[in-house]
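The aim of this short unit is practical: by the end, you should be able to scan a pair of folded records and say something sensible about each. We start with the first protein, listed as its amino acid sequence and then its structure tokens.
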Amino acid sequence: MTEKLLPITYNEMLEAGFDQPDFVVVGGDAYVDHPSFGTAVIARIIDALGFNVCVLPQPKFNNCEDFKRFGKPKYGFLIGSGNVDSMVTHYTVAKKRRDTDDYSAGGKQGKRPDRAVTVYTQLAKQAYPDLPVIIGGIEASLRRFAHYDYWSDSVMPSVLLDSGADLLSFGMSERQTAEIVQRLAKGEDIKTMHDIPGTCWLGHQWELPTGYAECASFKKVSEDKISYSKATKVQMENQDHINGKVVVQKQTNDLYLVQNKPAKPLYRKELDALFALPFTRTYPKIYDEEGGLNSIQEVSFSIIHNRGCFGGCNFCAITMHQGRFVTSRSHESVLAEAEKIAASPDFKGYIHDVGGPTADFRIPSCKKQVKEGLCPDRKCLAPTPCPHLQVDHSDYLELLRKIRAVKGVKRVFVRSGLRYDYIMHDKDDSFFKELVQHHVSGQLKVAPEHFAPKTLECMGKPALGLYDKFQNKFYQITKKIGKEQYLVPYLMSSHPGSTLKDAVLLAEYLAKHKIRPEQVQDFYPTPGTVSTSMYYTGLDPFTLKPVYVAKTSQEKATQRALLQYYNPKNSQVVREALKQVHREDLIPVLVGSKKTKSEIAYAASNPKRKNVPVKNWQEVQRQNQKNAKGKR
């Protein structure tokens, strides 16, 4: 197959040899013909099936004229917002408008609307009211049920209802897309396609299938937080393609959202075939006139070798989108891509990443999962690993060795989400040793996310002790091979479950280990995660137990400041936080021993309190336990 960009203008369509598209794929990002971009993947799938397809990237949204760019499509539109939810693309966690958009040429903001899926669908319907519209991608997928919307601070109905689309394709969508477009081409009415796995549709009560799981209605979840929590549990427990049920949720007085069973993931041969499609791995040259595209920089010399993640972190959307079932590409497929990258004239010899959602997952979590599906009531790795968990890095290690041997490749790095707990549960140290020796570019980034027990529990992350062991082992290996390399932990502030005391514990741990995070991520309540449900309801959806949530901007800022305790501009905030939780003993540890006037006055008014400087984190813990026993 000839590698050529798909048409994005009317003239390019004519040059491609057709004067009417069968389908138009609409995306909120600038067009990048690369397998890391959902718009390109869906367009290439349709193209490979023999249909005439055009791509409409970032259409103007003040009217519907841009949706008529290619004339009337023969069969319909497929619409997504891009690789990221449009609201996340536009706004920071503080709800401030971002200055740049890496998915737009020149990083310019304003190229797509807020809630792009809804706006684009309505414009497509205005342009051609009789044409089917199928929505998909991350924004549609994670908003398929009634959901808490952080930006409006309200519960919204399914995006399928709000947008007016005919069908919603959730997850990665390749299977669904292929079936939908072929059935449309055969003349089937989109409104009768109620049997396709991996899709959602709206219907009346008499149309509902048998054997479904029902969650509380939009009206009820928008009024009652316990109902919202219970609905979250039902939705999360039915996202497995083997044992998941059809899920139903009432949206209006007479319309129900029906989520069919999730689609089967693409297996190895199918993933290989997908990545063998004629992606050009570039973008239209017209974008260079506007400053080029930042979004392609990280992926140009990176390789995706797997899909899915059984890690099950509560703040991650993978469970509701890609799913927890892991599949991976063959060595031959990955090596063919590595050789193609190495042959690129711009390649400098460095593969930036060989990863995916979690880089070191190549196989499903256990053998039972392959036949019976994932356990709906427990996680595979946290808080402790399941006894049936398969921990094996041998295949991944062999793959990395082969890529290192490709002609023209100097170094191969791994940067995308290694699970340190999975590495530590491997009885063989071979992978860890070679990772540190060959695949770290000076800094290895891993994600413990927090160091307070209750917060880690709410995150669905493993207990703290394992990270300590990982850290020690990393530096032992690094020292042995004579390299200067560092471990960089990803950390999150203000996650549900994190009280001010927990934030102080986190700062205490960082100080003990001389960790000074330059970048701190605040928890961002995006649709479709367990953590967002906790944020909105203040409840754990699986137990209905209360969960503490930091919601005020002041408390969020304080928790964030504690993570960067070493920054002089945070000193006063850190001091006040320590006083608030009665941890003045940590003031010399976190901000220095010099006391302010207010601290001197506080000590004078509390003569019985011992503000004794402590040397390390363990000593602080012992002192706390001693104080607690004294109170009892």
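Turning to the second protein, read its sequence before its tokens, just as you did above.
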Amino acid sequence: MTFLAPGMLWALLALVPLAAIFFLKVRPRRKLTNAFFLWQKVFEEKKSSSLFRRLRDLFSLILMLLAAAAIVFAMSRPQVDQDDGRDLLVVIDVSASMSAGASGNTGLDLALREAEDIVRALNGTRRMALASLADQLEFVSHLSDSPRDLLRAVRSIEPREVPISENARQTLQEYAKGGEDYRVILLTDGHGGLSNLPESLEVMRLGEDLKNAGLVDADFAWIPGQANRAGFFYRVASSFPEVKQAELELRNVETGRIVRLLPMTLEPGLSEPRVIELGEASPGRWMASLNVVDDFLKDNVVEMVLPERRKIPVRIAASQAYFFQRCVEAFDFAGGLLQQVEEAAELLVAEGAPDGKEPALIFGPKGDSPYWSDLGDPVEVLTARAVAEGHPILKHLDLDGLSFAGARVLTPPEGAIILATSESGLPLIYKSTQDGRSAIVVNLDPAQGEFFLSPWFPVLVHDCARHLKSREGEWRAVYPAGTVVTVPDGGTLTKPSGEVAEAGPVQLDQCGLCSLALTGQSITFGVSLLHSGESLLDGSGPVNSVQDVASGRPPALWLIMLALVIITVESLLYHRRKLG
């Protein structure tokens, strides 16, 4: 036990005059009376009870001395020596699983109460910093010894709907390893994938292991090559120690109709991934629900949006039009991306110099065009090599399997993006934009190399069409919470809370439906928890390893309360004496 204000102990000297007051005797004043015999009877009764009265006065004296001593000791700010006295960094886990449990008794509720107890017990005796942990480690209060400021910081912490990210966990480890002048204490439920933490990090695990089951993976998409047929992919995790019966409900929110109600048996741990195929699926809002009674509801529901299949209208201008038509029709019949049209086209597939104003995919350059110059004779190409590795147009192509027969000497326009060249450096595939019109030039003659018969022909047409129309980054029906997406230039993303984010990287940190506004287009998609570490509340996380740390109410508070109780008791006794 130490005293932070030991000088206040000198106030104990005030007990001496306090005690002296009780022993002072008041000399009675003499007065004449003509009824002495009546007063003599009173004196006799008073004499018989004098011992009891002296004991009663002594008891009152002891009570008042105790009350005064308690107040003096409280003023001296006593502190129990429980730990080594270093500064503290208290990190509170605010990830999604901390909201699991009964209302008022969730992991976050317990953590906040524990943090408040630590602040009150420290009572300004040392500095403390406070941080929250989820997708990042964020300081709520830097080092301070003000209990009021620290309590205000604790009460400002709110739960998040995202899991603990790997980046946040590494940051926490760096702080835990960082210094000898402070201690790092993590207040957590122990779930959320916290593993391999350094020994220098002290963990205070709160709450009990919970029984929970939830959807930890989900996606909803059209099945390629099949018109109006979609597949729902899902995976379930369960922390129930026993086998549990449940139902998986797949509902079309637009119509309110339950499309599938699938009974399922939940085994402890992670289940195998499964796919449900739906015929005649319709675009719009869908919801998957795991119907089971557990301790965490947020991971039982997944909101999704199945996008419309928006085809790209394609116009063909080529001498070998038949082969291009069969390629586009194949995509159209299978419910794919392309659709051949004569008017109002959004993409041109051409041989030679292109006409029109649509973005163009050009095979076999011929004649004059702003997309090349110095057009020469055909040359033999032995090998092709990728210049822009990982480009969306080259991602699915095998350049070694392509024949660039009929490739001609040419010079691309200034600013062209060269994607592939020959062994001599001749551009074979490149992209250029002239007067606001983009085109991809494929320097080969499809007829000479029988490119129409190659399996890479439809692949190249498909990927070039997607790239020219900015469709290679199709948005998913649902994203896991915490995912970072890139909003295209000129677009805005509206989160479920109404918060609006501009172009650039944006973190999906709120569960619900998000709306993406692009030029002439609006896209809606869902965000759900979808994280096994936040759903498997089975107690497999780190164990409690916290060392002694101040907690509970400060001793001065208890001393003040004791003094108030004593004064109250003495007041009652005094009142009773006065009333006889």
